[in-house]
Amino acid sequence: MHNSTPPDDAEKGRHPLERERPAPPPSPEPSAQAPKPQRPRVTLHIATVRPYVTYGIIAVNILIFLVRILSREIDLNLLLAGANHPIDILQNGELYRLFTSMFLHASIYAGVSGFALQNALHLIFNMYILYAEGTRTEQMFGHVRFALVYFLGGLAGSILSTVLNDPNTYSLGASGAVFAVLGARIIFLYKHRTLFGAGGRSEMNAVIQLVVINLVFGLFTSFASAGGLLGRVDNFAHMGGAVGGALLAWLISPFFVLRTHPDQPLHMVAQDINPLRNRYRDVTLFSIGLMAILLFARFNSG
Prior knowledge:
- It contains 11 helices and 5 strands; from the N terminus they run αβααααββαααααββα.
- Mean pLDDT is 87; it is low at 1-7, 11-21 and 225-230.
- The strands form 2 sheets. A 3-stranded mixed sheet has the order 1-5-4, with no helix packed on it.
- It is mostly helical.
């Protein structure tokens, strides 16, 4: 049963919403409220390096591009001698092409006397992505681990391109190695999705979208003519590089755990518990796997 005081005669004639309501109890003064405890700010220290390897790779790619501009003859000779050409690689044993093709890009010369200046976008795009993602990756990975990802991942892209492309195809560009860096970046951010929080997860999603967009673009250009404005994108090199870089990063990338700074209580130190010296065997097995794929393809090409 609920007991209450009946309203007076004046109140009885009013709608319930029009009746006077009792005043709410006064709220305590702000000074009387207990302050919320604030969490102390913690400083995180992660050892990084300057991305000299990335800068060096970009400089070499630009230098080779400028040398090719000097004359059509130099341009053509470098292209024919260094591009990824399955026949020369698998049948003539010119394995160096798997490496040299990573430093060649589309020529600005077109035909006998024309120019295709838009082809410079091939170099510009690759170097921009390498600068944007490579510098941040090398800072965390260190020089040696980054170089292993770039060159071994790039070789994985070159080998897949050699094995799956038409034997008469000439393929060139740093994009296979660049995709290796992107694949490694995705794995690194995934392994540290808790440490880097929402910002790291957002960056990881952005890199994944970049990879997917480029693969879709490459699929679209596969229907274009070889001499068209878009040219042909070597998606096999992209996929091989991305998978190779991701696998290498899963094996050898740093994995940071937080430790309290020995001298400063409010400072945390990110300690790498996956040093490269413990992963030389994995790098060797990865390299042997690439060689096995190449030898198998060469045996079947005959």
